[in-house]
Amino acid sequence: MKSIDLVAGARPNFMKIAPLIKTLQSSDSRGKISFRLLHTGQHYDPELSGVFFEQLGIPEPAINLKVGSGSHAEQTGAIMHAYEKIISESPPDMCVVVGDVNSTLACAIAAKKQCVSLAHIEAGIRSGDRTMPEEINRIVTDSISDWFFTTSEDAGDNLLKEGVDPNKVFFVGNLMIDNLLINRARLRRPHFWGKYGLKPQRYLVLTLHRPATVDCLDSFKAIIGAVSSNSGGLPVVFPVHPRTAKTLMKIDKNFSNVIFVDPQPYLEFNYLVSNSIGVITDSGGISEEATVMNIPCMTMRDSTERPETISIGTNELLGTDATRIPEAMERLLNHQWKHGAIPEKWDGMAASRIISAFETILCS
Ligand code: UD1
User: Which residues of the chain fall below pLDDT 70?
Assistant: First the structure.
């Protein structure tokens, strides 16, 4: 029996490991591959962590490093230190990291330095913007990984340009979309739906959490103001990430149609998106989910590491300031937004492709 460590640390990791665990538990790989789930504790608030475990049926982690928040170096260093100890006491046959958060990078380095085989899921995506901490995490993780699992042909091409052996790259599709398709029929209204009189197709969803969008008071305020005043009077539901909450405390929240709510659980958040007229966000993952649900998506960034959400999907980049919001909102409200299609292999089968590749890598 071969053993793998599955690493998860922050909110966007949880929806990616959930389908992998389901497949590992149900498939023929039972008896061939055992897994140890490791939570780094990067996200620890119940709204960012515990509720995702409950809703997505993720088992209790075998290990929780409980590192909590800190500067990038503090957080990354604390995870490396703690995981190194775990590996030296009981090394797995392979360490599996997903995405591009600090936990991904830290565990990748700790594993590789102890000569543990390293698999990176969602490898090869590149925004080209090295001011984003996630871009550094992606580049460094890919530079030391042994096995690469990609969500698009583009991502594979990026890896080949960086000199990766094509035999180590598996184009498998998108775990986040596996999770969405598994849970689509279970999506449910948030508790405040009735209180605010929300109606399908008659509200917008706004999420902002990246340092580049929320740490500058003026531009942050300008984005919310532009969405609010160009929404044609529709309500704007804004689930607020803890980092964003800190900035919100410093500004005058005088936006009459903006409904500020806590970070939403998975099922409620995707219910909100799937019933909205459109989403305004600085998240990459949400642009993928919006694409699959055919919901218009405006991304408040200058670049994306997920170009297929634009070339194929419903996403459009609006930049980091508010200037392009009025024109984009006008097109949205006049139903002139482009119709998207679903990118290749975003079909709910990524987890089974990944687990069969693991079996080939580890067991043959
Ligand atoms: C992290 C990821 C980002 C991802 C986002 C999703 C990195 C570099 N960034 O950003 O890619 O899109 O998660 O949410 O890994 N905090 C809490 N409760 C928590 C966790 C954090 O209140 O459970 C607060 C802390 O004040 C912390 C701040 O949020 O300082 C930021 O948390 P952190 O994990 O450093 O990064 P995120 O902004 O969440």
Answer: 27, 29
